[in-house]
């Protein structure tokens, strides 16, 4: 079995992806790392170690010592947090990716996964059914780092044959972990407030549509892409990926069906401008054509599933 390293394993995507990878590769071949020691405790089904992705010597040593063949590099500063400290976000997001790509080249690693985002798009991008190829002028530091990162991924694939694969995730929604620092986070928080019987204040306006995806679909897409034969992965920047689009009002209404007393109000803050610069919906036909992507969850199905599991889920 190949040995797999996950960097940023305790984050929102990481914790669920790490479980899925351990199911496939075995806990002994899955090495989960994060900068936060406490957060690794819940990943006790695989090997864990504290790692700062900016500590290049430590990353290189771990890759060699553990005979790693694949890296899932998930560590990043997200859109909302990035705006508070742009230079730090740029430094962390870019330097870490470049280092991992360089390491993959030098150590001849088999595969690299690196997530991109709908944040690569900007205010001049077509908003509805945003195509794979179109104007991209992101205006957040997170988006700029993802756009530049995509170019580097394609560059390392074309020039050095590094087998790097990537998806432009929409907002990801799961109940097993909390997101941190994104513009789409409201769509996770709203479920927590509903089951706690509390009023929800949305930081986006009621009609702000954004592309979103339930975590099981995101995990499936990631594994499908990573396990697709090389010749089917025809886009080496990053694939558009989509499942559903909704507004705060629509997700509220889908929850209210199950919690009739639930209430919402709207107080848009600085994240509104970020949301306004992103697409409403995404055309992911290339992913569907090239490696057979198909989503399972729409808003109604996701809401039912979250409300079934979240009340008894312990963090
Ligand atoms: C964010 O909101 O920053 C992220 C993303 C869409 O990449 N969830």
Automatic annotation (TrEMBL):
According to its UniProt entry, one GO biological process term is: L-threonine catabolic process
Spell out the molecular function terms from Gene Ontology: L-threonine 3-dehydrogenase activity
InterPro entries linked to this entry: Epimerase_deHydtase (IPR001509), NAD(P)-bd_dom_sf (IPR036291), NAD(P)_epim/dehydratase (IPR051225)
Q: Which residues form the NAD-dependent epimerase/dehydratase domain?
A: 4-231
Q: Which Gene3D superfamilies match?
A: NAD(P)-binding Rossmann-like Domain (3.40.50.720)
Q: Which PANTHER family match?
A: L-THREONINE 3-DEHYDROGENASE, L-THREONINE 3-DEHYDROGENASE, MITOCHONDRIAL
**What family is reported?**
Belongs to the NAD(P)-dependent epimerase/dehydratase family.
What name does the UniProt record give this protein?
Nucleoside-diphosphate-sugar epimerase
